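Hi everyone, sorry if this is the wrong subforum. Our group has a chain we'd like a structural model of before ordering constructs, and none of us has done structure prediction before. Sequence below.
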Amino acid sequence: MIFWITVPITVILLVLGLFIIKQYSSTEHYEFDWVRFGVLALGMITLLLGFNIMGQPGVLVKFISYMLVSAALFTTFGWLSKRSHKALFKLSVFKRPVFLFSFLPYVFLQYANIGINFMLPSYVQMVNGAAAVIGGLILLPGSIFNGLGQPIYGWMLDRFGGKLPLYLGNSLFLVPIVVMMIMGQEMSVLIITILYTIFATGRSMAFGNSMAYGLKHLPRDEQKDANAIYGTGNMLAGSLGTTIIAALMTSVHIASFSHVQNIVAGSRMAFGMLALLGVINFFLFRSIV
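Answer:
Right subforum, don't worry. Here is the predicted structure as tokens:
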């Protein structure tokens, strides 16, 4: 039912886009590289299938097999990319530090965003005993701040450069995660809502500006390739975030613990992993701003 509700909205947006979005630059004909596209798609699908079974008992060999096949497909994609002249995107953009060190935080932030958006509603239901509607509502204030803050975050980048929005955003992203990891079961629904709102504000501030800063400092002829890679990484990171966070959250099975205590322990592992990504982001940002 939830997915059917989104269908009319999608149709309305499609119709509006057909009339509002215009082509402002001349188009060119390119021969699309279906072979590379297929290899890349298979590599991503295999990777996701592998992580999707992570945490299940007796699947280690199957998981390793998925990872090996995925690695082989990504290697093949890289080999084909060096020889193909058809249109997809150029991997040479990764040779530019400003792209690489903005792309990695971009995907880390999206990974954390989708993962924690899945985890927290489940957490408050299983640990705090909240109703499902409360589990959804805890994300509402942060989502509102995300929407209202976008113009401000863009203004910060234009006015102060990359350092302020990237460092401030990542700090606001990191601190609530560390607090959640430390507090664990002691968090009330209200505290989780407040911490998520701070997290969402910081993540949104750093996320959009990571991409904007990277594109801003690339040659114009490489921006379309970079934009395509940002989008691909965004989708893949989101999928992995949900899968891995869910697996970590339910990965602890200590016999002397209650179900709630096991969930809290697994969630602390997930928070710890996200906190580590936040720390890594500081070093990556330091390389470009």
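For your construct planning: The chain has two domains: 32-88, 90-289. The CA atoms of residues 86 and 214 lie 25 Å apart.
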